[in-house]
Amino acid sequence: SKTWQLLGYDINDDWPGYSLDLFSYPAHYSGDIDCVIIPHGVIMDRTERLARNIMDDLGDHDIVVLCVLKGGYQFCADLVDRIKALSRNSDRTIPMRVHFIRLKSYLNDQSTEDLHILGAEDLSFLAGKNVLIVEAIVGTGKTMKTLLKHVEAFRPKMIKVAGLLVKRVPHNSACLPDYVGFEIPDRFVVGYALDYNEYFRDLNHICVISESGKMKYKI
Question: Which keywords are on file for this protein (predicted)?
């Protein structure tokens, strides 16, 4: 009965995922993933809908898109492309600038307390601007809370957050995106630019990593 349950497309905890036999994926990851949890085509369709929601809310506002690297680069690129397509074919338009920052808080499959924000030292150009933060995945919300606090210090006019994935985790701090693609079980997912120690970014679908995959690429 979480209030945010219907913000995105809900993938149940007992969802077994799609069999790998149904999809093409790089042979070098054979044995490293258990299943496909969100196929690439479904990601694209959902991203198109999120772009429309963003256009409905923010159309005719200048916005600065703050892309959170590295995991968010693919979602951000596809989302911006779809917003641009809507702008070309609509009476409303969204002039956009894109800026990149990098967050790093994971070692293997564990989030650490040690959060590094790179490229965000001076965001003074955000003062008085409408900001759309684009992040691939939100877990406990601690990372997003830290980032929001950092961005707010530069006094933007408005901040909205688009998150492709929100994990159902026990200690979610209620720091949730305004635009959510999918709500997913608390499992470690890779693909579509989400990595495990820099591997799996070259996987199109969002997949669940296998235990043997974790061991293989552990550092």
Answer: Cytoplasm, Glycosyltransferase, Magnesium, Metal-binding, Nucleotide-binding, Purine salvage, Transferase
Residue of 90, 132, 108 whose CA lies nearest to 195 = 108
Instruction: Please check the confidence at residue 118 and state whether its pLDDT lies above 90.
Output: no
Rounded-to-integer distance, Cα 190 and Cα 197, Å: 10
Count of residues making up the chain = 219
- Confidence category of residue 112, pLDDT binned at 50, 70, 90: low
Would you list the DSSP string of the chain? --TTTTSSEE--TT---B-GGGS---GGGTTTEEEEEE-HHHHHHHHHHHHHHHHHHHTTS-EEEEEEETTTHHHHHHHHHHHHHHHHTSS----EEEEEEEEEEEETTEEEEEEEEES-S--GGGTT-EEEEEEEEESSSHHHHHHHHHHHTT--SEEEEEEEEEE--TT--S---SEEEEEE-S--EEBTTB-BTTBSTT-SSEEEEPHHHHHHT--
Q: Which two tokens stand for residue 122?
A: 């001076």
Query: 196 to each of 54, 146, 207, how far by Cα in Å?
Result: 30, 22, 11
pTM: 0.90
d(CA 161, CA 175): 10
